[in-house]
Amino acid sequence: MNIPPQAPLHLLHRVSEGTLATHSRDPAGFPYPTALPFALTARHSPMLLISSLAEHTRNLQADSRAGFLVAHANNAGVLEGQRLTLLGTFEPALKTDHEALSRRYLRYHPDAARYLELGDFAFWIMSPQRMRFIGGFGAMGWLDGSEIDPLEPLNGDEESALCAFSDTYSGRPADIRILGIDRYGCDFVESGTRNRFTFDKPKLGVEDLKAALIDCFERHA
Description:
Helix content is 28%, strand content 37%. By secondary structure, the protein is an alpha+beta fold. Strands 1, 2, 3, 4, 5, 6, 7 and 8 form an eight-stranded antiparallel β-sheet that branches. A three-stranded antiparallel β-sheet has the order 9-10-11, sandwiched between helices. Helix 5 (156-168) packs parallel to helix 6 (206-219). 29% of the residues are buried.
C-alpha cells in the first residue's frame, strides 16, 4: 500500500520516546531493546543522547545496525494507534555539530542539560534505510529512508530565528511553547502536553513559516 511519506514524518514529531533495539554483545545474537527519549535532527532523523557506559551504546559501537520503534496511541490501545519501525544505522555525531544538536535537543528535553554536564554523554544519529509504517487497520507499508523528506531543511539559524519570533509574538497563547519548526509543521507543548500543528502544505519561505506559526497560535487561542 502506498504510504504518504509525511505520515511517518508527522508521527516521529509527535513522540518524545522510542524503543531502540541493538545487537547484544553478551549474550551474543539476541536483540537488546531499551526505551529512550529522542529528538529529531533538521532532517527528521532520530538522535539519542546516550552514555558511553550504557549497554546499548557499547552494542552500537560493536554493530551500528539497529531498529527504532515509535508509537502514538492517544488514549487508545497501542494496536489502534500509529506505529513506525525504522531500520538503519546509528553513528556518533560530529563534534562540530554538537552545539547545534545540543540547542535543538534541549528545546525538546530541557532536563537533559544535567546529562550534558557529565561529560560522558554524546549524541548518536540514526541513518534510516527502511521504514515500516502502520497507520491503522489496512493502512501499512514500507518506505525507503530517503523518502521521508525530499526538501532542503531549515538551517539552525533559520529555525532559531523562527523560535525567537514565536517567543516574542504578542498573539501567542501563554500556555504554548514552540519546540521545533520544519517545513511541514511545528512541534509545541501546550499546558504540559506535547503536540504538533501540521501545515496545510510545505512552507518554503521564512515569511510563509511565520504566517503558519501565527495560524497555529490563532487556532489554539
